[in-house]
Amino acid sequence: MATASDDPTPGAIARWFGARFTRGLAIAPLPASALRFLVGPSLVCRTRLSFTGLSGLQTVEAWRLRFGEVFGPCKGGVRFHPGVDEGNLTALAARILLKCAVNGLPHGGAAGGVAVDPSALGAAGRVALARAYVTAYADLIGGDRDILSPDVGTDAGLMAVMSETLDTLRRRFEPAAINGKPPGRGGVPGRHGATARGAFSVLDELLENGTSAEGGALTGVTMAVQGFGAAGSTFALEAARRGARMVAAADSSACLRAETGLPVDALVAFKAGGRAFSTFEHPGVTVVAREDVFTTSADWLVCAALGGAIDGRVAGEVRCGLIVELANGAVDDAGDAVLQSRGVTVVPDVVVNAGGITVSHFEWVVGRTGAPLTAEEVAARLDLRMRETARRLRQTATATGVPLTVAAQLLAIDRLHAALESRI
Ligand code: NAD
Questions:
Q1: Which atom of ligand 1 is nearest to 233's Cα?
Q2: Beta-sheet pairing, 108-114 with 56-67
Q3: Given the CA of residue 329, which atom of ligand 1 is nearest to it?
Q4: Per-residue model confidence as pLDDT tens digits over 205-253
Q5: Which helix (H) or strand (E) holds 88?
Q6: Ligand 1, residues 225, 277, 292, 306: which to mutate, most atoms within 8 A of Cβ?
Q7: For the whole model, what pTM was predicted?
């Protein structure tokens, strides 16, 4: 029996893929038979996990879900965050599917996570949770089925734990099943910072060499960065290396501001010590509310925290000309509409933050073939792929007259159509 969630109309599909996708479909419609692949996740597995944390035995809700094995085995992050639920994971998996489509990667979308605050677990608790997660989902995970990677609240160390756990359960090595492992434990060199490096390849290409890798190319450009974790901090370091001035940076505790420029190296070292910006002290740096990052006057606003950061209200208040959407879904549909009316350019997540998934894909290839890559090979391949996608994005936006956010959907729709054509 058909249900409302089987409704293959563009309006219903927007629930997971967003208004950008619907706008893309209005320009390049997909047949209803193709849209049926996109109505919702193909698999949702909800579990109550038990593990031993700092406060003894804990039970938490966990999920693993897949969205469209259209191009190949699914791939997606594992998120440890109190806000994790089935709805936001489904939207995340749909976005990964789009990202793979836009960037020509042979994977479907997946996502998973645990509704928990990882900072309250302690290191041993996080390891116990990582083991419990993989043990619960071992039958779903695999290089030919569903490939795990780090996301908010998980990192390379936890990926190594997950990989060891899976190998132990299977009694064989399965390096392709878990990506984002540290180099030396099956990971590829250069995964850390790949998202930021990939973003600069894209920005370089889109802004017609405005960001070129040479030191000093961003001299005079000011930036505000929301989120100072793996993605935000490596982006900030690379921006500073190129001469940009970081005038604001926020973590979940506070926003730091300095008109003359924040000491980026010191901030990275400070965060590596696990400390909160609200306790940072430095001459010339003021501590303000974390939301103040959005109203800081800067050329670029880099969103590297969580999805939905820029809604219609925040979009009306931002004081920048360009938003770099490092966080998946950083700008919501209402935010997009307001930013477009205000002439603010958004460089879309599915292109600008694809460096991480692209290098993850390289790691999957290495895991399957056994042929290692050097750091130089990883960097060169990443740059090539990201620039190629950025060029297609720019050409599509120019040819159709739509914003980059919608042009990215047209690239995805084109590839989805080609892949689904043979099945409909
Ligand atoms: P992370 O957990 O390492 O960092 C997240 C940061 O955001 C932390 O500094 C946290 O304090 C901060 N934060 C959380 N809520 C905030 C708020 N309300 N205001 C200000 N700061 C806030 O995560 P990450 O890996 O850097 O990922 C960040 C985003 O980028 C996520 O949306 C993720 O999906 C996306 N992303 C990351 C990668 C990657 O390679 N790390 C790749 C693609 C996309």
A1: 26
A2: antiparallel
A3: 32
A4: 998 755 555 555 898 999 999 999 989 999 999 999 999 999 999 999 9
A5: helix 86-103
A6: 306
A7: 0.92
